[in-house]
Amino acid sequence: MPTPEDPEDGSAERPAYYAARPGGWRDWWTLLHPPYTAWHLSYAVIGAALAPRVQTSRLIATVLAFFLAVGLAAHALDELRGRPLRTRIPAPALVAVVVVGLAGALVLGVAGVYRVGWTLIPFMVAGPILVIAYNAELFGGAMHTDSGFAAAWGAFPVLTGYVAQAGSLAVAPVLAAAGAFALSAAQRRLSTPARNIRRRAVRVVGSITFGDGRIEPITADGLLRPLELALRAASWAIVLLAAALAVARLT
After folding, report:
1. Cys bridge to 227: 16, 45, 119, 194, which one at CB 3.0-4.6 A?
2. Which of 38, 36, 40 is nearest to 154 (CA)?
3. What is the pLDDT of residue 137?
4. How many Cβ atoms from other residues are within 10 Å of residue 33's Cβ?
5. 216 bridge partner residues
6. Exposed/middle/buried for residue 161 (C-beta within 10 Å: 0-12, 13-18, 19+)
7. What is the mean pLDDT of each run of 10 residues along the chain (251 residues)?
8. H-type helices in 136-219, by residue range?
9. Half-sphere exposure of residue 208: CA atoms within 13 angstroms, side-chain side
10. 222-239: b or e for each residue (b if 16 or more CB lie within 10 Å)?
């Protein structure tokens, strides 16, 4: 996803490759985690596109609910715990975002139950629980794992997107959810070392000696570049795939 600041400037000082300089509106941009938010909203679109019939209003409501719950509430709650993104957003504002985001998602969920039926209730209830349990690291951080991330932000949006359209589950969305789980697990395996380097590493030293005698120094930028280029490419790939499916089903 495009960012206000060029992330490929050789600097490993920012808390994320898409993070803007601290202060003002740029903090809100950083808080949204734009590439990752778009990535996980795309799973909801993919799930919806697999339904026998796709209703635009339900698709928009589903994506908006996930944006409120994940893009806003989950990320604001995460920032309240230790300021990993180093934003200057006041804590009361972050709390307000959490409350408004979850409340808005619940309102959309209730409206969805009215239109879709009781089968949407488990998903409406599970959404806020996943946000709070994962980002607040409840139950001793039992959900805050690679598998918890993949289930909550990969498989769950696919299944919810499908049920919001069809009112039931089927084999296709379950298979797609398994695929989203695997992709999200891969995302986590790439993003975790990148975060550790950017946010926790104090110094990176060492070198690689090749068979021809060439010695290549190990640097923070050298370690980050392949990880973050892969993450950036994957985020674009998932978003474009979701867009293609949506266009194919809605036109």
Report:
1. 194
2. 40
3. 85
4. 21
5. 208
6. buried
7. 41 84 94 97 98 97 97 96 94 97 96 95 94 88 91 97 97 98 97 95 95 95 96 98 97 88
8. 138-141, 146-150, 156-166, 171-199
9. 7
10. ebbbebbeebbebbeebb
